[in-house]
Amino acid sequence: MKPPYTSRQGQFLAFIHHYATLHGRPPAEAEMVQFFQVTPPTVHQMILTLERRGLITRAPGQARSIKTTLPPEKLPPLPGASTGTPLPVRQTEGQQPTDTEAAVLRLGKIQIKDLFTHYDRNSLDDSEFIPLLDTLIESFARAGLSALAVKELRRQACEFYHQCCQEAELESTMESNMELMFSYLPGPRRKLWLRWT
Predict the structure, then answer these.
(1) Picking from 68-72, 76-80, 180-184, 192-196, which range would have the lowest pLDDT averaged per residue?
(2) Domain boundaries, position 15
(3) Last residue in a domain, options 23, 54, 71
(4) How far apart are alpha carbons 127 and 95 in whole angstroms?
(5) Does 47 have pLDDT greater than 90?
(6) Whole-Å CA distances, 120 to 31, 105, 114, 126, 173
(7) DSSP run (H or E) holding 170
(8) Helix-strand-coil percent breakdown of the chain, rounded to 5?
(9) What's the confidence (pLDDT) of residue 98?
(10) What does pTM read for this prediction?
(11) Are residues 171 and 134 in the same domain?
(12) Is position 80 within any domain?
């Protein structure tokens, strides 16, 4: 039976579903712009089309109110996926990630980069920022992203943090910057991050 959406519409529906599953709230249109690498009008038109076709609902004037109307099993895999797995399957050392996991990992990297951009623009205090970063990455782990992919997200976050520290103090080392970063995490959380090296 033919699905009630086009291939492209299905990609947006899958993204909305996966994003809401990961974060407990629907995505903003700006996040769809970044993920699909299209213009804001393109995303807005897609949202209007999906709503007109009854594939999503929205609350007028309310941000992040998009909800899919189809059950998860009726949605396609996230863009580029070849299987209909609703969430990534955990992988072991040496296995290649599934297409769905690769797409979710890409979403994680985009969100980490956005968080650091926000951090840089708003001069957030590290004691607030680092736990927020940890919570973002942990949401991907809880959603089923493999340990290897979560490790990759943590590694990227550490590299961004090191770059930020070096902009403030050129002489800083990766080791000293990681020590500083991890000092803002409680003991059990710190141990998870220490494993990335």
Answers:
(1) 76-80
(2) 7-71
(3) 71
(4) 36
(5) yes
(6) 19, 23, 10, 11, 19
(7) none
(8) 60, 0, 35
(9) 62
(10) 0.65
(11) yes
(12) no
CA distance 150 to 24: 18
pLDDT in tens, 106-133: 888 988 988 888 777 777 788 888 888 8
105 and 184 fall within a common domain: yes
Cβ contacts of residue 82 below 8 Å, gap of 6+? Answer: 99
**Are 67 and 118 within one domain?**
no
CB 160 within 8 A of CB 116: yes
Instruction: Report the distance separating Cα 169 and Cα 159, nearest Å.
Output: 15
Domain boundary (30, 52, 71) is at 71
SS3 at position 56: strand
Does the structure show a pLDDT above 70 at 184?
yes
For residue 94, pLDDT over 60 is answered with no
CATH code assigned at 23: 1.10.10.10
Collect all residues with Cβ–Cβ distance below 8 Å to 103 and sequence separation of at least 6. 18, 78, 79, 80, 81
The domain total for the chain is: 2
Q: Are residues 66 and 121 in the same domain?
A: no
Same domain flag for 41 and 110: no
Rounded distance between C-alpha atoms, residue 51 and residue 5, angstroms: 12
Residues 58 and 120 placed together within one structural domain of the fold: no
Residue 8 CA to residue 130 CA, distance in Å, equals: 36
